[in-house]
Structure formats: structure tokens, C-alpha cells
Design goal:
single chain; about 400 residues; alpha+beta; 10 helices
């Protein structure tokens, strides 16, 4: 048991003793003997930092409770050497924190917490390569997402030279990781934008379930399964490309979109109308083409009709328009976090989804989004307000830092 974890369990036992003393009307003392049993395994769960792929893409595949996304721009005069030193510092700090250890210069914000499934993922934006003299090694697939007619993109909250995704099952652990990484960037890179979101807390349901978004809809059904034969080919880049892009072997591309939900107009719809917009039942997530008693995993039947002769899943339903069958097989792994950033001037919630898709080529997202923007009924109830694409290299081996094969190759 690590010193950090030991302190965490002792603190839990002390708090329980304090409450018992207060109820009894006497003075409480911290427990100093025995071996307290942790009340949960959530805090003790650690995700390996090193591996063939970076953590935070498919490990853990379930949604983490909190997430922070941050993009950085390199400071003036910063080049390849300084960028390499920054990735070395970031990787060392991330490796320590994901395993529940204090990073160098730790300010002890999360001293009494375990790793809490913390993952830290690093990526490079298109502009990173020209600013570090590596334009000749930029991946051909790293192209910007075009602006679509219904977009309302804020350039100040889009793009960036570097990107960090932090995920965890404890808010303090997640904040601490982001804070440590931001401080480590001082003098080398400055925050361009930062967004924070959340999902259902572990243990909130009797068994793991697909999360619901702020529209109340089950969100994430139909994601590619790691056991599927095409999973790795869909999500991760493959070996065999140009030698100057071998640093992306085992990597992926992250498309990041901040999607505000128009929750007022959405709430004005009846439940039946909402289900027709999505194409799934709101309670179970089952497709509208499925019989009673079906679940969210029941395959949808795009060619099924109702007794009245209409399509069971409407022609403009979200799941029909987004389905791989409707997009020449284009597929991606969708992960995200809900967000709520207060209220706008008109009193409506500034809330929605921090939408992250992972794919071996951003063209998959672009193809699907092109169709969604023109044919998806859901478009009337959402606004895409920021956009970015990042090349996320493969994982670092022990003794390496993320991006080393690019920056020192």
C-alpha cells in the first residue's frame, strides 16, 4: 500500500470516528491502530501510463466521472528542443500521478487520494509542426475539420499547438493533474483554451451502464467493440506508412467539438418526438425498429416499417444518419463529457457535450458530420461552438516520453 493510499484510508477512518463521537456527545479521536478496510476500490484503481497506445482512448473504455480538455500554444521563440523538454516533463508527471505517486514539485493538492483511474493523453495540432521545424513530418491525415453551415465556431476556443485530455473518477485528482501540467508548461506553452466536463460517478448504478447526456438520452450505444475484428483498424493508425511518420504507429486522431444543447426547445418536445429525433427509446435506448422488451444493444433495422407504412426509424433520425451503413462504413469511437458552464445572457443553460471522437483517420468524422449537418433532425437542437483535431502518437515505452520518436527521431 502506497503512503498516499495509506493516508487516504486512515483519513476516511478518522472522519468516521469523528462523526461517531459527535453523535455520542463525546470527544472523538482519529483511529491510530488496526488496518482500516477501504470503503471502495474506486480510488485505488490505476491505469498504466506506458503501453502501445496512450491511455485515455480505450482505457478505461467506460466513461470516467470527470474530464478536463486543454489546448496550449507554444510561447514565442519556443522550438523543437524546448517542446521536447516540455513533453519530457509532462510525461514524467503524468506517469507518477496515474500510478498514485506525487510528481516532482507536487503541491500536495491530492495528497490523500489514490490514482482514481487517472489518465492523461497528449496530442499535437497542425500548427505544432511548423512552429517546431517539423512541418515535413506532419501526418497527411491531420487536416482541419471544415466549417459546416450550422456551426457557430469560436476560433478562440478551437485548435491549438498541443492538447491534453485528463480523465479521472475523482474531481480533485483530475484538477490536480491539470494544475500540475499547466505549471510544468510555464515559459514554454500558454493555455489557449480549457474545458471541463463530467459523467455519472462510479457506483451510481447497480451495474455499469451507458451514460446519459443532458438531453436525457443514453449516449454511446453502438460504439465499436474492442473485440471486433475491425476495432484496431478503425481507431488506431497502422504500421507500414511513410518512414517519417512512423512516430504515429499505434496512435490515433482526436476530433474535439464543444456542442451546446438547446435544452429549452428540446424540453418542449414530447417524449415521442424526442425519441423520433434520436431514433431510440428514451428509457431503454432500444432502437425504434426493435420490438417491446429490446435493449440498447439490439441491432437497429433501418429497413423496418411500422404498421402505418412509415419508417420505424425516421429518415432524419440521428442514429440512421450517423450509422456506418449510411456513411460507406465510416466509424469512430465516441467518448465525451457533459458540461455546464452557467447560464447565458438570455437565461438559457450554457450546457451540452464535450464531444471527442477517436479514429485512425479524421476523414471518418468529416464524412459523417457532413451528412449529419445536412440531414440530421438533431441539428435543430444543438450548436457546434468549437472544433479541433489532434494527432495523438502511440504510447511511450518505459523510459520514453510521449512524442519522443517525433521530437528526437
Amino acid at each position: 500500500m502506497s503512503r498516499r493510499r495509506l493516508l487516504g484510508t486512515a483519513g476516511t477512518a478518522g472522519a468516521a470516528g469523528l462523526m461517531a463521537g459527535a453523535v455520542a456527545g463525546g470527544a472523538a479521536t482519529h483511529a491510530t491502530t488496526g488496518h482500516p478496510t477501504p470503503v471502495t476500490s474506486v480510488g485505488a484503481t490505476a491505469v498504466p501510463f506506458h503501453g502501445a497506445h496512450q491511455a485515455g482512448i480505450i482505457t478505461p473504455l467506460r466513461a470516467q466521472a470527470i474530464g478536463h480538455l486543454a489546448a496550449f500554444d507554444l510561447a514565442s521563440g519556443t522550438g523543437r528542443k524546448e517542446a521536447a523538454a516540455l513533453l519530457r516533463r509532462w510525461s514524467a508527471a503524468a506517469e507518477a500521478m496515474t500510478q498514485g505517486r506525487a510528481p516532482a514539485g507536487d503541491d500536495q493538492i491530492a495528497l490523500d487520494a489514490g490514482p482514481c483511474s487517472l489518465t492523461v493523453t497528449f496530442g499535437f495540432g497542425r500548427t505544432f509542426f511548423s512552429r517546431t521545424g517539423l512541418a515535413h513530418r506532419a501526418p497527411a491525415a491531420l487536416v482541419p475539420v471544415p466549417r459546416f453551415p450550422s456551426d457557430a465556431i469560436d476560433p478562440k476556443r478551437s485548435d491549438g499547438d498541443l492538447w491534453i485530455q485528463v480523465g479521472a473518477d475523482d474531481p480533485l485528482v483530475g484538477f490536480h493533474a491539470l494544475h500540475v501540467l499547466q505549471k510544468a508548461a510555464a515559459g514554454t506553452a500558454e493555455v489557449r483554451w480549457q474545458m471541463s466536463g463530467f459523467n455519472r460517478a462510479p457506483g451510481a448504478t447497480a451495474r455499469p451502464k451507458t451514460v446519459r447526456n443532458l438531453m436525457g438520452q443514453i449516449d454511446g450505444t453502438g460504439n465499436p467493440e474492442p473485440t471486433g475484428k475491425d476495432f484496431a483498424r478503425t481507431i488506431f493508425t497502422r504500421r507500414g506508412g511513410p518512414a517519417d511518420q512512423a512516430w504515429m504507429n499505434g496512435g490515433s486522431y482526436a476530433v474535439v467539438r464543444r456542442i451546446r444543447m438547446l435544452l429549452g426547445p428540446w424540453a418542449d418536445l414530447t417524449r415521442t418526438q424526442q425519441e423520433e429525433v434520436i431514433g431510440r427509446r428514451k428509457d431503454t435506448g432500444a432502437p425504434l425498429s426493435a420490438p417491446a422488451g429490446a435493449s440498447e444493444t439490439t441491432p437497429m433495422e433501418l429497413n423496418r416499417f411500422t404498421r402505418g407504412g412509415s419508417l420505424a426509424i425516421p429518415a432524419d433520425a440521428h442514429i440512421r444518419v450517423a450509422a456506418p451503413e449510411s456513411n460507406d462504413g465510416a466509424a469512430m469511437l465516441r467518448r465525451g463529457f457533459s458540461y455546464h458552464d452557467g447560464y447565458r445572457a438570455d437565461g438559457t443553460p450554457d450546457a451540452g457535450l464535450l464531444f471527442i471522437t477517436w479514429q485512425a483517420d479524421p476523414e471518418a468524422f468529416i464524412k459523417v458530420q457532413t451528412k449529419l449537418d445536412g440531414a440530421d433532425h438533431l441539428t435543430r437542437f444543438i450548436r457546434h461552438e468549437s472544433s479541433a483535431v489532434f494527432a495523438v502518437p502511440g504510447g511511450a515505452a518505459p523510459g520514453e516520453y510521449v512524442g519522443q520518436r517525433l521530437l528526437e527521431g
